[in-house]
Specification:
six-stranded parallel beta sheet; three-stranded antiparallel beta sheet; 9 helices; globular; binds nicotinamide-adenine-dinucleotide
Length: 309
């Protein structure tokens, strides 16, 4: 399994580390428009790989080097500076995706390749990459709200006193400020969240839910304020998505992919079945009226931003 990572900044390097540590990949090639940076990362990661799984990691100086890649991960582009929203990156990163995708497509097997997008604003970049690549929508996949859902499960786990592994709770819609927590479908073990709280005598009023949703939406801003950027979470999310595809795991992940046609076409995160073919199916969660309205609004925001580029 050969993986190409385009954009070897903070996120691309973290993704390479996490992917290397899965043990499911025999070769990783790194491309960055800053060739010195890519070569330095390949050296450092190659030395790290000698302590673990045997993975060949090389920097390539042009797109011919990505030939033979089964999956291409795009982590290139401007990141948020403190105070910036993901949408503020729209014009800059649309230019980056428009530069990268045609070059990728000229060097991969279009019948086989899957493209994973990490660049923000994520959902709009997925739409643009899908359009430029002309691949089937389910083969251009954004990590979407995988990371937001992980943040939700982490906060909930602490509040409820259970492992994150026992919580099924999803964030849907935009990977951004209009994301929507699906409280209605949340379960803990086999119980609904409400029933779990009743049995365990845990208070979970609407104000607490609102605070948790706010913390989930704000997590990236807090991390950027404290650390300058976010990388560990997205690195792990990308490697998890990659593992799911490589092993044809058919897990349900909240990834972003294009659906709909014409004016209704949009990419956003919904619970989707992911396997070797990419996104295999999309599930429609049962939402409350307020959650449905918020999800529609989120889709409209993504579409409006896409129409601006
Ligand atoms: P960074 O500035 O550290 O690295 C970006 C890299 O992209 C640089 O090395 C740069 O040289 C390279 N690059 C830019 N344009 C390029 C091009 N046309 N071709 C090849 N390489 C190019 O930024 P970062 O912190 O690594 O963030 C990268 C992207 O990931 C940002 O858009 C950021 O918002 C996004 N991100 C997404 C998530 C998520 O959950 N999806 C999480 C964190 C960051």
């Amino acid at each position: 399994m050969k993986i190409a990572i385009i954009g070897i900044g903070t996120v691309g390097s973290a993704v390479a580390t996490a992917v290397k540590n899965t043990g499911f990949v025999h070769e990783i090639v790194l491309f960055d428009r800053d060739g010195v940076r890519a070569r330095a990362a390949a050296d450092d990661l190659g030395h790290a790989a000698s302590f673990g799984f045997d993975v060949k990691i090389t920097a390539v100086s042009n797109y011919r080097g990505i030939r033979g890649s089964d999956i291409v991960i795009v982590a290139a582009g401007a990141n948020q500076k403190p105070g910036e929203t993901r949408t503020d990156l729209l014009a800059k990163n649309a230019a980056v995706i428009s530069d990268i995708i045609p070059r990728v497509m000229a060097n991969v097997d279009a019948k086989n390749v899957k493209i994973i997008i990490l660049t923000n604003p994520l959902d709009v970049m997925v739409m643009l990459a899908q359009k430029l690549s002309r691949l089937a929508p389910g083969r251009v996949i954004g990590t979407g709200t995988m990371l937001d859902s992980a943040r939700l499960r982490t906060i909930l786990a602490r509040h409820l006193g259970v492992s994150t592994q026992s919580i099924n709770a999803y964030v849907l819609g935009e990977h951004g400020d209009s994301s929507v927590v699906d409280w209605t479908s949340a379960t803990v073990g086999a119980l609904s969240l409400d029933e779990f709280c009743r049995q365990m005598k845990i208070s979970m009023p609407q104000t607490t839910r609102n605070t948790i949703a706010h913390r989930v939406r704000n997590a990236a801003y807090e991390i950027i304020r404290g650390r300058g950027a976010t990388w560990d979470g997205i690195g792990a999310a990308a490697a998890d998505l990659l593992r799911c595809i490589i092993n044809d795991e058919h897990r349900i992940l909240t990834v972003s992919t294009v659906s709909g046609t014409g004016a209704d076409m949009v990419a956003m995160s919904l619970p989707r079945l992911v396997g070797a073919g990419g996104v295999v199916a999309t599930l429609r969660p049962k939402l409350s009226a307020a959650e449905s309205a918020a999800l529609r609004r989120s889709g409209k925001i993504i579409r409006k931003n896409y129409d601006m580029i």
